[in-house]
Design a protein that fits this description.
Number of strands: 0
Number of helices: 8
Structural class: mainly alpha
Strand content: under 5%
Distance between the termini: 113 Å
Shape: elongated
Order of helices and strands: HHHHHHHH
Helix content: over 70%
Radius of gyration: 47 Å
């Protein structure tokens, strides 16, 4: 009899423990529900404020908001959520790509600067600067015009040595020959410097 009472008492204690756990779980769920309700209430207030602020900004910007179109817009956004997700993934991939390629672009820039410096040392840019000089452009223009107008003529150009020497008495001919000789010497000097720089590099 005493053994049976002990069993009953033990079962009652176990039931009480389980009941306490159930009551505690119910209380926890109640607290969670209250916290969730409070969160929803706070979010609702924030959403209302944000919506009101947006409406005021749109009104100040003279933008008419079609309230009937807002739900459709939300539906469209939800229908295309996968597309937006893919777009975000593409943006992340592009960001990673730019991060990966930045060192390569930086090195390419350095290589380009070094190559330009090398060309400058070899005097290539001096040639370009000379070609943009107004005097050089004018001289090239006169030269090309003369080449176009003056053609080889057997009668005029078939002169004797004495005839050529006679033309040397003309100051214009002497100046032109002197200028041509100096020009050839300068070109040869420039070629020589370029070759020496090329050998050193």
């Amino acid at each position: 009899m005493a053994m049976s009472e002990n069993n009953i008492q033990e079962q009652i204690s176990q039931l009480n423990q389980k009941l306490d756990l159930i009551l505690e779980s119910i209380e926890q769920q109640k607290r969670n529900r209250e916290e969730f309700d409070d969160l929803v209430s706070d979010l609702s207030i924030v959403a209302k404020d944000a919506f009101h602020h947006t409406v005021v900004m749109l009104d100040k910007s003279q933008v008419d908001l079609d309230h009937s179109g807002v739900p459709m817009l939300l539906i469209k956004l939800l229908q295309n959520i996968d597309t937006f997700y893919e777009m975000l993934e593409m943006l992340e991939s592009a960001k990673d790509f730019m991060k990966d390629i930045s060192p390569i672009l930086h090195q390419m820039g350095l290589d380009a600067v070094n190559k330009m410096n090398e060309f400058d040392q070899l005097g290539y840019f001096d040639i370009v600067r000379n070609l943009t000089n107004p005097e050089v452009i004018s001289a090239l223009g006169r030269t090309s015009k003369a080449l176009a107008e003056v053609k080889m003529d057997d009668t005029l150009d078939n002169k004797s040595l004495f005839g050529l020497l006679k033309q040397l008495n003309s100051p214009d001919v002497r100046k032109s020959l002197s200028y041509a000789l100096r020009l050839v010497q300068e070109i040869n000097k420039g070629n020589r410097v370029t070759r020496e720089q090329g050998k050193r590099s």
